[in-house]
Structures are given as C-alpha cells and as structure tokens.
Amino acid sequence: MKVLVLGGVAAGTKVAAKLLREDRSCEVTVLTKGRDISYAGCGLPYYVGGVIQEKSELIVNTPEKFASLTGARVLTQTEATAVKPAEHKVIARDLQSGEERAYGYDKLVIATGASPFLPPVQGLDLQNVFVMRTPDDAIALREALEGGGIKRAVVAGGGFIGLEVAENLAAKGVKTTVIDFAPHVLPNFLDPELCEYVENKMADAGIMPMTGVSLEGVEGSGKVEKVLTSKRAMKADALVLAIGIRPNTAFLEGSGIEMFKGTILTDAHMRTNVADIYAAGDCAMVTNRQTGKPAWSPMGSTANIAGRILAENLAGKDVSYPGVLGTGVAKLPGGLNAGRTGLTETAARAEGFDVVTATAAVDDKAHYYPGSGVLLIKLTADRTSRKLLGVQVLGPGAVDKVTDIAVTAISLGATVDQLAGLDFAYAPPFSTAIHPFATALNVLLNKMDGGMESVTPAEYAAGAAEGCEIVDCGRAPFLEGRRYLGLGSIDGPVEGLGRDDKILLVCNKGKQAYLVQNRLKFYGYTNTKVLEGGAAATEVE
Predict the structure, then answer these.
(1) Which of 90, 185, 495, 507 is most open to solvent, judged by the fewest CB atoms within 10 Å of its CB?
(2) Report field, pTM of the whole predicted structure over 0.85
(3) Given 42, 195, 283, 473, which residue is catalytic?
C-alpha cells in the first residue's frame, strides 16, 4: 500500500512511524513544507528564554534520522498545492527549484498543521516583528534579544504561547506588555474569575496585561518603535504575534473535502468524507468527548493520539478516537502554572448542565515542606447526575497531577461520590495527607449535600455579598477593620451577631470559615455564607 503523508511535524510523523511499525510492507512518503520535521513546537518559548540552551534540542528528529529509524521517505521543502482525489494524486512544489510534480497514493493523510494568523495591519514587515511557530522563529527572537536591542516588547495574544513568550521575555529583563482583544487572557480556557487571578499574578511579575484591545498597527523607521492599539500607542522594540493560528488547508479548494471554517472534518477513525483521504493534527477537527460536538484541538498531545489511531486504522484495525476534553497545562508568568480539563462553568452552563461548582485553596504539599505553595482548584459538576464535568487549577506546584486525575475521572464518567475516598499517594515532598484534589472534592460534596452554604469568587465579584457583614475568621485576624471571630471562641451565641443576620465568613483559604459556619449552625445561626477559597482566591475589601 502506497501512503502519502502531507506534513512532517507531530501528526504526520506519528502516522508514518506507527504505520511502518504496524506494517513494514507499506510504502510511506512524507512531504513537508519546512526544512525541519518533528520539532518541539511547545518548547520554542523556553529556547527564547534560555531555559533550553541549544538549537539542536528543539529538533526531535532530522529527516535523515527519521527516515533511517522508520523506513519512511521524507521530502522537505516540498509544499502540496492541490489534491486530486479522482486521480489519487497530489500536486506538490519543490520550494527550492519551483518545480511541480504529481505524487500518487493509495491512501492520503493530510497533516499540514496550521500557521500563525497575521492581522491585516500596517507595519508587520518591520524588523523585530516575530511569530512563534517554528524553530527558526524562536532562533530569530533569541538572537535579537542577545543582540541587546530589545528592552520593551509587546506580545499580541493572551493564550498559552503568548503568555509563555511573555514570561521568557520578562525573565530576560525585557519590559513586556500582553495585549488581547478578549476581555481576559486565556479566553475560553479558564472561567473569568480565574483569568483575573492570572492577570493579577502577571502584574505582580511586572508583565502588564491589556485586555479588550485590538492591535491597530506598528510604526518605526525600519524596525519596531511603536505598537498601536485601539486604546493607546506603546513604545516598543519588538512585537511578538501570538494571536492565534489558522489551518493550512487553502490548497484543498476544489478537492471536495468537507471543512468547517477551514478545518477538515473527520469521523472517529480520522477519515474525511472523501474516500481514501484521512486527516489529523492542527488542520483537522476532532470531537469533544463530553458534548459529542466537533472540536478543534490544536495541541501536540491531540496530534499524537489522533496520528496513532489513524495509523492503526490504515493498518487494518478498527480504532475510534473517543474525543478530547480540552485538556491543557501551561507555565505562566509570576511563578504560576495553569491546568484545565473538561468543561468550565461557563461552557457547562451553555451546554445545559445543572451546574454546581466549588473553589478550594489548598496546600500543594505538606505546608512545612520547603517549596510548598497554594493550589487554587475549581471543580465543576452536574448536580443531577453528580458527575464531575471539569477542573481548573492554578498554582506554583504540580497542577498537572490534579488535572490528570480529573481527566481519568471524567473519561470514565465518574460521579463525585465515586471519587470520594480514593487512595492517593502521600509523602510530604509530593502532596498533603488529604490530597489537594480530595480536599477540593470534599468542599464540593459538602456544598452539594447541604453541609456548607457558600459564595463563590465569581458570585462575590458579582455582588452576592452585598448586605452581608463580613466576618474575619482566619486562624489569626487579617482583615483590617472587620469583626474577628476565631473558631475557639465560639461556645454559644456570639455577642453582636443575630441568628438571622446575613454573614459572610472569610478566612485565608476557606477551611476555617467552613468550620466556623458549622459551629454557628449548631448555635442556631441560619444565614451564614462561606467565601470559597477565602482570601487566597478573592481580594476582600
């Protein structure tokens, strides 16, 4: 069987390598537009910041090494320009010679990826305008930094790549501003109140977030001197474009391949609507595991899973891709890490679930162990089915652990009751005696079962605490000008607090407030609320 693969990064190389492991009789040819294949795209910001030292570390495989290891034929700097399904042929151009030729196939795999979106504004041809997609992009930015000419930079785009680049620029002493048209950074990845938490940490780290603004242009004499936005102009020596990506599918016009907004539609076997043509990676749609709806997941992890499944099906197996959960994890400015899987509260409500959430601030390891920090965990569940729907987690520690626990739970359709009491690993360097996920789960269960009445950080921001007396119930007083009520002092009715008074109980992380509420209930107090996550999650005035 003659298999032609268009694209030589994550999905394309995975298909080629896996297929040839499954069936060495296949004749596999990989055509790729770039000079490099199988490079570490997610590592590019860290090369800029010097965390990754050598250029060579960005290249997972050279074309020669890959061909030797797998048996695939690899042709670089070869760009597909048209697909002719009726003839089972692809027309491709040699980018060095300009020569075009036809490549035949029995099966065609389209894994052409995506390219950075370039907004239609003036000045993008100036020196020191960068994108961040290939090793050459990262090398160019780092060389400019090391040349000493970049003191101020603007990053356009507040997604993963934009924030990772911003962090690494700031680490190099560059005064950095991040702009985004959305109301918050990390739009659609986190709920708004957690986005604000990230923005505050960015500001603390000296990186200024400017949201709700659009890039209007760039000015300068030969190189970047000023970045124009819809709010104001900013002096800058460099602009990094991380606004988003667009699938590389323009060459498929007239092929009959079904697409949605330029992204190839596939079934669970990674097949397109055209016979003998498959697609995977950033150019293709997959399915959301929870909603069953088409989903675009331009992630290296998705590309590798889809590529493996595609190869197995080419080899004659019957394997379906169950879909994605929107899982992601990132290292952000301000010593912050972020993880998410499943549905956010916003997305779950839009899908019609009977949503209940809980936010907990918990230690990521034993508080007495060096390097311990606080994780902010938000769980989303369906009140009716009691199934876990999603998790969002922020903190300096191993947010991936909490995220991956939730991936497993959601994938298996677990309820919050089934997750209670799981036997998580514990030792002081790694976790707490009650695992952070378990602690957050206990908060959710207490809330769902009526053991805790609370106000979420989002509800507090929306004014849910208006008319409440805010009571400081930390281990020690910390809210200036507020009544202090320590747990140990409550042995009956509290002088000055009526049993029906509206009271918001606030501590540092939420636990002490819950314990105080529990005791006040015993003494007849009927209208208390706990601020979930305490002051760690919400700035209380």
Answers:
(1) 495
(2) yes
(3) 42
